[in-house]
Amino acid sequence: MITVIGTGTGAPLTPDAKEALAGAAVVVGARRHLEATGLPRAVERIVLGPLAPALDAIQEHLEKDAKDEERRIVVLASGDPGFFGIVRVLAQRFGARLLDVRPGVSSVATAFARAGLSWDDAVVVSAHGRDLRTALNVCRAHPKVAVLTGPGAGPAELGAGLRSSRRVLVVASALGDPRRERVERVTPSEAAGREWDAAGREGGGAVSVVLCLDERRPVAPVRTVAGPAPRPAGWALDEDAFAHRDSMITKFEVRALALARLGPRLGDLVWDVGAGSGSVAVECARLGAAVTAVEKTPDGVERIRANAAAHGVDVQVVHGAAPTVLSDLDDPDAVFIGGGGRELPAIVTACARRARRTVVVAMAALDRVPGVRDALVGAGFDCDGVLLQSSRLAPLPGDVTRLAATNPVFLLWGVRPPARTEGVAP
Q1: Which segments in the chain show pLDDT lower than 70?
Q2: Cα–Cα dist 202/14, whole Å
């Protein structure tokens, strides 16, 4: 067996963990964990740095000691090793049946405890060795997020990316260390303006985790399922679910296909350009994405904010005309364009240059279709589209029904093709 012991966030090891260590022939762990446990000199130590050499060493001992069931390998890990920890790679390499896991208290659980908050409704995202943009987009979309930090992805970087949001950051450092532990509440701007060291903070301890909170949103009711709020049971809501001006709103039939092509999801950033009422922006936010709505009219800006508030989602609203205002925004995964007039091809080109995955364009005028298609193809996208014509059931006197046609709408979408590797033999 490989016994995996979670050291928690500074609490003493449990009696059964101490017993496992006492009978260990080989102990694997970070240097600080190996030094803190006071192992006998006879015990072989493997310092855990890069994973591959440590895993190979464990493999060698397993093969060498296959007939000696008394020889035990112990792996020491921070926090809860089954929560963004080493258990995953050990199970993949050696099989879950060979593991005896003794969990500790994770830094996330400890950070929420220090803040006096429950965390069954929180989203947890790791930025350690990963793309920071995913963590930022999750923080923009959800009211309660825990971010596991790393070099280049600490409080300063999170704060810089969240300056325009009304969030509070709770920065937890050296959790479990009675001399150096510190929990601070700061604004994103304050976090961005300070010096933080993900490996060790001057005069203090390493940053363990950052909580990102939107305290304006109500506390979640009693939960039966942990994690973020469940996705909505339906989408492509009726037009009367949104405030709009003179029926200037993307109709639900068009919105349904647009959402299918946009594919908004947790960790994504979606632009809604020429947002109007913000119906597409709100629906993308309801499906878990972070959303930026761009609208040039002041009354439209207020309408989008009101619709977002009515549906309990957070949409960043940018007042200005595209493509000019787009340069200051973070790169999106997907873009919906619902307006633009004669500027439409230029707007599509600007969006296509920035979009990581797809651009979807809705337009009523046939004359604009060739220009939009050329803009998508010219940006290297695979382009497709449809003309949507629908007729809705409408009542007539005498308890009969007719079909009432809606205005036809062209929907074009461009999808960035996957990167192709040249010159690689099949």
Answers
A1: 65-71, 197-205, 340, 420-426
A2: 31
